[in-house]
Design a protein that fits this description.
five-stranded antiparallel beta sheet, 13 helices, 46% helix, Immunoglobulin-like, Phosphatase 2c, domain 1, alpha+beta, 16 strands, six-stranded antiparallel beta sheet
Length: 465
């Protein structure tokens, strides 16, 4: 920062920290409300016996003897039945049935009611465990959200600064253009790149384009800035906040080629590209379970949720974990989807490759091809998942090639990686779309038959501006 600049602690940062603390407290409260049960309590077993005694033994002439003098033996017989149910299910072993017939004149009904009481109690336990699992999922969501809020507050506090001289110069330069500035905010990210928020309007009959306004701000800042988002072409008489970012050094271009199982037009694979603040760009590929319309719905849901959370400001891994918890909590049956994500930093050229159950990714760099794989599970299976990630530095003319399992599985087992590396390394194409179609065509030519699974190739090229 230049001389005269000072860090500025916003009261909003303090308030955000309080929100995070409250969410943490809520999550811990949820986790303390009850854990999942693995066995019945003595009280629950007693209730089973009371239920059987009321329905069966109350009308038996030996009731007072069985539940009086012979109480211990009756309880022991009940425990043996419950233990046998755990081992053999409803079809008890012959020895347990023989013992029951010897000591109970109403053995068939006693057994039937005992099994019924056991299944009712087990069903209740399953519902209680389901509730505990849901509470655990909510707690994970809140805890993750609290961490994200705290991280955002820290980044905001670190990046926000004031510079009165710079602010005065900026207001004076814009005033000459007929622009009245209400206030400005200056930010500097971890890479030392500037971000300027200017809330302003035109004065009287002045006419100035947003493009010209941003050019003036760039001249004052001494850096090349570009507007973030979409604005009207002209600055109006109403106050508008223009966000200016320091222009990135790199740009990317994507190309995709895909085909459904058996040559179908409907694919269970989906993808997205989203630009984020701070010069970030995310390219993601999701493969839904199975193929066809059902798989397409699953991967579409994942991609849409992912895009919404990322644009809202959630960190990439946090967004994946939150979607995973949502999918696990929201349904009885398992439906999973993979997530394959490349996060490009267009300021530095760095790329973080994040995978949850996804297939291989290939990086073509300086004529060589690097193969990156993952052993993590897809999302939608377990509450807590491991997310694999690795970072690479990319340079002008490098390519990141993401593929779904259908592409890899179409090649001979044990040779998939080397064959795909050879195909990628052997092409001279530099247009991402043409490269994606070339790779897919080469794989299909190798198999010589209709696709046995959905196949998608997503290529991203990166170039210096």
């Amino acid at each position: 920062m230049e001389e005269g600049q000072a860090l500025h602690t916003s009261p909003y940062v303090t308030q955000i920290e309080k929100f995070a603390d409250s969410l943490k407290q809520l999550s811990h409260t949820f986790l303390r409300m009850g854990e999942k049960k693995q066995s019945f309590t003595n009280e629950e077993i007693d209730n089973m016996f009371e239920q059987v005694k009321e329905k069966v033994c109350g009308q038996c002439e030996k009731c007072s003897w069985c539940w009086g003098e012979n109480f211990v033996h009756t309880y022991q017989m009940g425990y043996e039945i419950l233990s046998a149910v755990d081992t053999y299910g409803s079809e008890l072993n012959t020895e347990t049935k023989r013992k029951l017939k010897q000591c109970c004149i109403m053995a068939p009904r006693f057994l039937r009611e005992m099994l019924g009481a056991f299944h009712d109690a087990r069903k209740n336990m399953m519902w209680m465990n389901r509730m505990a699992q849901s509470r655990e999922g909510c707690a994970i969501q809140m805890d993750t959200f609290a961490d994200m809020i705290r991280l955002t507050a820290k980044e905001l506090e670190d990046s926000l600064f004031t510079d009165e001289r710079l602010e005065k110069r900026l207001m004076a330069a814009l005033k000459k253009k007929g622009v009245r500035v209400l206030y400005t905010n200056f930010f500097m990210n971890r890479e030392g790149k500037y971000e300027v928020h200017v809330t302003a309007r035109t004065m009287q009959d002045a006419h100035i384009t947003v493009k010209e306004m941003v050019r003036t701000i760039s001249e004052v800042m001494g850096r090349h800035l570009v507007p973030e988002g979409t604005y009207a072409q002209m600055l109006g008489r109403e106050y508008t906040t223009i966000v200016c970012l320091e222009g990135p050094a790199f740009s990317t271009l994507q190309g995709i080629a895909r085909i459904g199982k058996g040559g179908s037009q409907i694919s269970g694979d989906n993808f997205m590209t989203v630009d984020l603040p701070g010069g970030k760009q995310v390219v993601a590929l999701s493969d839904g379970m199975g193929s066809g319309e059902k798989a397409c719905r699953e991967s579409t849901l994942v991609v849409e949720l992912l895009e919404e959370l990322l644009e809202a400001g959630f960190p990439e891994k946090t967004a994946i974990q939150m979607i995973n918890t949502t999918l696990v909590m929201g349904r009885e049956e398992i439906h999973y989807s993979t997530v394959d994500m490349s996060v490009f930093d267009l300021y530095t050229g760095r790329c973080e490759l994040i995978k949850a159950g996804a297939s291989s990714t290939f990086i073509r760099q300086n004529g060589k091809v690097e193969h990156l794989s993952s052993t993590s599970l897809p999302i939608g299976v377990l509450h807590q998942i491991e997310i694999d990630s690795v970072e690479r530095r990319l340079y002008d003319g490098d390519f990141v090639i993401m593929v779904t399992d259908g592409v890899m599985d179409a090649l001979p087992v044990g040779e998939q990686d080397i064959l795909l590396e050879t195909i990628i390394q052997g092409t001279l194409l530099v247009n991402p779309k043409e490269m994606a179609h070339h790779i897919l065509e080469q794989v299909m030519n190798w198999t010589g038959k209709p696709p046995e699974d959905d196949m998608t190739v997503l290529v991203t090229g990166i170039w210096e501006k």
